[in-house]
Specification:
Number of domains: 1
CATH class: Alpha Beta
Largest sheet: 8 strands, parallel
């Protein structure tokens, strides 16, 4: 038994290390399977910061990224899957699906990083000037976009669900209807929700999604996978012991693994089975 981690980044997007270095770190960590899933974003807006951290706006081609991942996988001590992380925009999701159809991928992570032009997870300074009403609006818009992401089934995994809390700015309005609709759409889509352990290292000091939301995921029978969202070798499989314990507490006994975009279930390793 072992762990997988499919949500990780290299220098092709906003990661700090090459695909070769990330694959080597995954092997040293003892992961069962590992994937790089660099950001690939078709933003409908010319005035966002997406080109700073994603293909193709940064001038880097997806074809080159995937070729380098496959080269790094050659001779690797662990299974290396080929992934990508895409963004949901109501205006461009069709274009994104068309682009994905041209490539042989193992796993696609679909995420929401923007509500309209607002960058959810770039820096706290974008949140600081907002009124509480603005914060509530951003959260509501986020959950509405998550619902849209699921309804068009943009990917296989919903990335870092609950991301707006990253900088510890929280809503004061009741969003249970929007959250419930989004989770129902995920359940209907057959998509998987990731337990993203990176949140424990952010100002919110909590995983994505929160334990409360993870419980709602479990109630709906939505499958889960655990991902580190690593941007450098030191983050490979971070907090996996903590994350596995949370999954067990929420009643999960299995998590998803992917190959050729087909899911399978693998057991969550028992305590002491973590790779790092």
């Amino acid at each position: 038994m072992g762990f997988v981690s499919y949500h990780n980044h290299s220098t092709w997007s906003d990661g700090k290390a090459s695909p070769q270095a990330m694959v080597a770190a995954a092997g040293a960590a003892g992961l069962l399977e590992f994937a790089l899933s660099d950001h690939f974003v078709f933003t409908p807006y010319a005035d966002t910061n997406a080109p700073e951290w994603s293909m193709p706006g940064n001038g880097r081609a997806l074809e080159g990224c995937l070729a380098e991942i496959r080269a790094a996988a050659t001779g690797a001590p662990r299974v290396v899957r080929v992934g990508i992380e895409v963004d949901y925009f109501p205006e461009t999701w069709g274009q994104t699906l068309e682009a994905l159809a041209r490539h042989d991928l193992d796993v696609v992570i679909a995420s929401v990083h923007y509500v309209d032009r607002f960058p959810i997870d770039t820096a706290a300074r974008f949140w600081e000037p907002l009124s509480q009403a603005d914060i509530n609006r951003i959260y509501r818009g986020y959950w509405q976009r998550i619902r849209g992401l699921a309804e068009c089934r943009l990917g296989d995994i919903v990335g870092h669900l609950d991301l707006p809390k990253k900088f510890a700015f929280y809503p004061t309005t009741d969003l249970s209807r929007e959250i419930g609709a989004a989770l129902d759409a995920i359940a209907a889509s057959g998509m998987t929700v990731e337990l993203n352990t990176a949140g424990w290292d952010k100002p919110c000091a909590a995983p994505y999604p929160s334990p409360e939301l993870l419980g709602q995921v479990r109630e709906r029978g939505i499958p889960v996978v655990m991902n580190a969202d690593a941007h450098c070798p030191a983050e490979i499989a971070r907090h996996y012991d903590r994350g596995a314990e949370l999954l067990r507490q929420c009643g999960f006994t299995e998590m998803r693994a992917f190959a050729k975009r087909q899911p399978r279930n693998i057991p969550i390793p028992p305590p002491g089975g973590t790779p790092v």
